[in-house]
Design a protein that fits this description.
This protein has helices spanning about 5-10, 15-40, 50-65, 80-100, 110-125, 145-160, 175-185, 200-205, 215-220, 225-255, 260; strands spanning about 70-75, 105, 140, 165-170, 185-190, 205-210. The protein has about 270 residues and is of the alpha/beta class. The protein is elongated and about 75 Å long.
Length: about 270
């Protein structure tokens, strides 16, 4: 064994070189699509049906003269779902501002409050109506799970919003809020990547954005190059994994094991 190889082996595990290659390909895909998006190239992202539901909800609120309630989940800003929810909030605000519909945003975590305020403020500015921004509509409720749930349910029952939009990380409170919103007759559109809460949203809401569609929605609405590039890069990586799985299964069927053995993590 050469001294150079011995030195490198103390830093790298050469039995896991396959993991390095796969990670390298994934990051190469992401960086390529981010670069393409920054150059202004059009990256196709299929339109999610839940987005049409948001527009329908805003239209109904306009006709009824009632507010829209936006719930961003119960996690802090270190959660990717909350980040995606804030991006969606900014775009929803821009849509709401054009029709002069009040937007109520109850918040569970203190650190989310300034982010939500800025997202809403920027939405009104983009719509050309900065004076319509009302800081009091972004309300900190409580960082206790069910105290927050009770506060949101109270807003639903008192304000009777025409639409409830719920995007973010939800847990046991999801069904309680969704059922309360259903009882008030509001249009409800929900989205979360917490798959264990999706059945409750599917049952109680009019439209549900499922799993990773939440992140795709934030990329679709914002057109942010980094988000679009990450989305397209991860999609291409998933497609490549599917091809590898199919190829590996076929080769294993015919007794060729060298291909699949390369993917073992030792």
């Amino acid at each position: 064994m050469s001294p150079i190889f011995f030195y490198l082996s103390s830093w790298f595990d050469f039995n896991r070189i396959n993991v390095l290659v796969i990670l390298g390909l994934f990051f190469a895909f992401v960086f390529y699509f981010i670069n393409q998006a920054k150059k202004g190239k059009s990256l196709f992202v299929r339109r999610i049906s839940g987005l049409d539901a948001i527009e329908e909800a805003v239209g109904r609120a306009t006709e009824m003269g009632k507010p829209i309630l936006y719930i961003s989940g119960i996690e802090d800003m270190d959660n990717l779902q909350t980040v995606a929810s804030m991006i969606i909030l900014g775009n929803v605000t821009e849509m709401v501002a054009r029709y002069d519909v009040p937007l109520l945003v109850p918040i569970c975590r203190p650190f989310v409050v300034p982010v939500a305020e800025e997202a809403v403020k920027q939405g009104y500015i983009k719509a050309g109506k900065p004076d319509a921004y009302d800081k009091n509509n972004i309300r900190y409720i409580s960082d206790e799970q069910f105290a927050y749930t009770a506060g949101v349910n109270g807003i639903m029952l008192r304000e009777r919003p025409a639409a409830n939009l719920m995007f973010g990380s939800f847990f046991a409170e999801s069904l309680i809020m969704a059922e309360t919103g259903f009882s008030t007759g509001a249009i409800q559109v929900a989205g979360t990547a917490n798959i264990h809460q999706l059945p409750f949203f599917v049952v109680a809401c009019d439209y549900t954005i499922i799993g990773e569609e939440l992140f795709a929605t934030s990329a679709y609405l914002s057109k942010e190059p980094k988000l679009l590039g990450s989305l397209k890069g991860s999609d291409l990586a998933k497609f490549l994994i599917i091809i590898i799985l199919i190829l590996g299964a076929l080769l294993e069927t015919f007794g060729i094991t060298k291909f699949s053995s390369w993917f073992f993590v030792r």
